[in-house]
Amino acid sequence: MKSIRLRPLAIAILLTGCSTQSFAHLGLNLSVDIRSLTMGNAVTADPPGISAIHFNPAGLTKLKGLQTDVQGIVANFGVQKEFSAPPGYNVFGYSDDPLICNDAPNNPSNICTDYKDSVSGDVEYASLYIPILKKIVDLGPGWPVMAPTGGISYNPPGSKLTYATAAYAPMVAGFGSEDGNPGNFMGQQVAIERITYLSPSIAYQVNDELSIGASVGMSYNAVALKTDLRFPNEMIGVLRMVDEAVCAPFRGNSNVITDLLLFGICNADEGMNPFSKFGKLEVQLEQSLSPSYNLGLMWEPTEEFGFGMVYQSSAKMRMKGKYFIDNANAPRELIKGLNSSATGQILAAILGFPGYIPPTESGLMSMDLEYPAHFQTGIKYKVLPDLQVNFDIGWTDFKAWENFKFEFDRQISALKIAKLLSNNVTNQSLSLPLGFQSPWSWGIGVEYSANDRLKLRAGYEPRASAIPDDKRNALVPINNAQLFGLGLGYRFDEDTDIDLSAAYLRSKDNIPANTSSMANMTGVDNLLLNPYAGLNIKTKTDVIILGINYRTRW
User: Fold this and answer.
1) What is the Cα–Cα distance from 355 to 366, expressed in whole angstroms?
2) How many CB atoms lie within 10 A of CB 232?
3) Would you say 360 and 324 are in contact if contact means Cβ atoms under 8 Å apart?
4) Highest mean pLDDT range out of 104-113, 255-264, 424-433, 487-496?
5) Please, which residues have CB within 8 angstroms of residue 400's CB and are 6 or more apart in sequence?
């Protein structure tokens, strides 16, 4: 298996997420603040420095005078994907899928006699969508990059108000692989990012015990995808059977009668095969300004106990961009053959098929996307004078991602064919029924003050998946995950602190054949979203995150 190195660029590079599901919440809270990672993100009652803008803006009242905060994150991802054939594997009686079959290409049998034990489709490098270039850029394997994030806060002397702003990434995810990678049928390149570039915030200390705060995040959002297409579908298997068993005697020897009886299908120079590449799809969507807001409260009745809660609003967007479709030869030949016969033309008209499929199609597209709302609450408690325990619970409205609908500015030839066998497909739109759920999550963190200068931290956060069992896929290679964090903080003087952190995220997933309608389901009506129909899929993700944070008061 291969491992890849993902690195932060602009803020951090963190793998995913379809939409913002870290790739177990699509990276949510993985690239905001390193101290929070070491505390299992249980920091609502004890928000870290200027990053309180995100975690609980009420915590900004803890910052006195003029303060700045700079941090950098380096992430190393190992993402592994495996595909294998179960006993009895076939698609309409065919099992010679070159993805998992070792038989020679010229083997006349349609039944595979020598299956590969497993096929690796590992992610090979990180990818980012670059707004200026309007494209996904591959960063290359093993290319370490680190870039800082930063923020500034100001509390006027004697004032109960604190003002702040910061740049951070609530979500950045991206990956890519080379041509021919077995995993490319579920995203050769994927980039999803939300970067908050300005976050004006204010906090007010009501009294010695109570503080409230609010922040407005002005964010850039982008979604980009490049993927190979194939349709190992029962109906495509029927077309292959017709081509091989019925059309073979008439190949190069057709006449008017056979054309009429066989609808002209036998005139195609290349027949349809459920295991062949259907084409390639590329999309880029973005929105430059996507505002949201955070509201927070913090209550500290004693020095030993504190309570906090935060509401992070949703952000509804109308993202716009471009698409490009590279159509393979086989579907083009199918339509060409149908239209070479009078009966074929009638059949095509009844089915709503196009009269012609061009080699490529391109144009404008759009989609509605809602960045999900999030609520979190937690406590901090000093069980000993030098030992503090934090505990948080949170809820994220990922159900807002129940369905992604892409709308095109014109009719798409491939969709005219696909709509016959797929739900949620029209001539000008394509819907992805993600069916995300809204899970609750929790985290726990421990901080030990070794002395007046040194603090040691540890945290744990189990991340419940938002993806239902029957929608799991290799595009989002994280199901349920566990986050472990360790770190230390050192105070040089009363105005300067430095934090060093390390975090580890792990996840394994097993998707048995015919269990997911978004990956490996066979049947007649599962055309677009099941490129690995009938195959077993396994994924494994290991993430190591290292970070450094420097804070000072001027």
Assistant:
1) 26
2) 27
3) yes
4) 487-496
5) 314, 370, 372, 373, 436
Q: Provide the token pair at 368.
A: 């509605």
Report the distance separating Cα 190 and Cα 263, nearest Å. 40
Taking CB atoms within 8 Å and a gap of at least 24, the contacts of 140-143 are 141/4, 141/5, 142/5, 143/5, 143/7
- DSSP-derived secondary structure letter, 246: I
Buried b vs exposed e over 438-470: b needs ≥16 C-beta within 10 Å?
bbebbbbbbbebeeeeebebbbbbebebbbeee
pLDDT in tens, 449-490: 999 999 999 999 998 888 888 888 777 666 788 999 999 999
Is residue 446 within 8 Å of 457, Cβ to Cβ?
A: yes
What is the rounded distance in angstroms from the CA atom of residue 97 to the CA atom of residue 84?
11
Contact 60, 213 (CB under 8 A): yes
- CA atoms of 86 and 112, how far apart (whole Å): 12
| 3-state SS class at 210 | strand
Structure token digits, residue 431:
């819907």
In DSSP notation, 378-424 reads: EEEEEEETTEEEEEEEEEE-GGGGS-EEEEESS--HHHHHHTTT-TT
Mind giving me the DSSP string for 93-159? TB---TTTB-S-TT---SS-SSB-S-EE----B-EEEETTTTEEEE--TT-----EEEEEEEE-TT-
Angstrom distance (rounded) from CA 487 to CA 503: 8
Closest CA to 486 of 15, 47, 6, 35: 35
The H-assigned helical ranges of 21-118 are 34-38, 52-55
Q: How far apart are CA 389 and CA 373, in angstroms?
A: 27
All domains of the chain in start order, with CATH: 4-83+120-226+289-332+364-553 (2.40.160.60)
CA distances from 311 to 24, 43, 222, 297 (A): 20, 14, 23, 9
Q: Model's pTM, two decimal places?
A: 0.85
Q: Which two tokens stand for residue 2?
A: 């291969």
pLDDT-based confidence at residue 25 (cuts at 50, 70, 90): very low
Contact 132, 152 (CB under 8 A): no
Evaluated on CA atoms 483, 484, 488, 494, the torsion sign reads positive
